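Message: Just now I want nothing more than another pair of eyes on a protein record. I am handing you a single protein, as its sequence and its fold in token form. As I understand it, each token names a local backbone shape. Take your time, and here it is.
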Amino acid sequence: MESLCIHCKGKGLCGKHCYILDRFIDNAPKPKLHFSGKSAPELFVGRIGYPFVNSGILAPQDNDNISNFATAEEWSANNFSIENVLRLRGQLIYGRAKTNIKSNEGPAGSSLGDRIKQVTQELALSSKPVSTEFFLKKKPTLEFTSDSVFRPMTNPAPIKKVILEENPKVEKKVDYLTSDYDVKATIALQELYNSNIKVDHLQKLLSIGLLGVKISRKMVPTRWSITATDDTISKQQLEKIRYFSEINQITLFSGNFVGNYIEALLLPGRFSFEAIEAWQGESTYNMEHYTQFSQDYEGFFGRKTYASNITGGYYAMRLPLTEYLTKVQKQATVFIFREIRPEYYAPLGVGIVRETARRTFTNPPKNFDTIEDALKDIQTRLQTPIETIKEKSWTLHEYNKQKSLNDF
């Protein structure tokens, strides 16, 4: 029977204390009730108790430099190790309060949720760290919450009041589209992305309820907003990609980051996408002594259901792929294999998957005459036997089985 951990991924399905979380408890700050720090800005909207959820702000108590390295994109650009990330995350305080995801009132008519929501929305607009003063009701609990989708959460505490000590720096396009109550969220995301607003920033705007038609605006749990942003942008790019000409040679990209190894094989043909994850034994979420696999895929016309096996990682890998195909204006039949090794011992969020895939597609590609030659090259870097990969892959099994019009 497969380990529950690989399906749970930090959600607490077993009802027991998570052994993964024990590895996070390091470098925790000395708890304070009042402090000032720069918010990255980093915000979080929970999902438990929906529509009344915990939401709030993460900020460092002492070291403002922490706020400069809040996202997986920054971790990748600076070649951070897992230890670097955990050290920085461990010093953040998560000030939170119960908030209604749609109305301006907290539970039982409290206005605290309204005030916290207003500040978090102002922070979400900002493209730069903002000095923020925090007043907590209780000292933070020294604990960590991890998940395969969002970044590690640290040291939660009920918040009493929060004050912005400076005005947020807001990009003109962000200000314009968050103020436009007649634009749908999907269109706003596309326009902001095309204006070079970072994906991480788009996720915050969606999560905190600043995008969409006025009557439909509401806060979206962070877990959902991350995947929704990756999915929405890549779907929009695919609408154009399906009309591009096909690549004319077998192309292979390879890359890795903090124990995540990706091989992206692009084959001549109409667009389709398959992703397989191989969680090696005794790695994050897999306490067994053998490798466990997850797989999701889609054909030319896309998926009709959520990628429930790989979940957020599927969309996090698809976005860098569609970014690359859009750049070269080509379409292809694509197979991506992600091997997660024991060195990736702590989950850092789905952003790590996205940035590893982005690294992969910025590396120089290799070209091959046959699929077998490409697979032999892949085997020189992966520890998973190539025969196992061929056996499990829908793409490798189905490729060239159907004839195209060019064959007649």
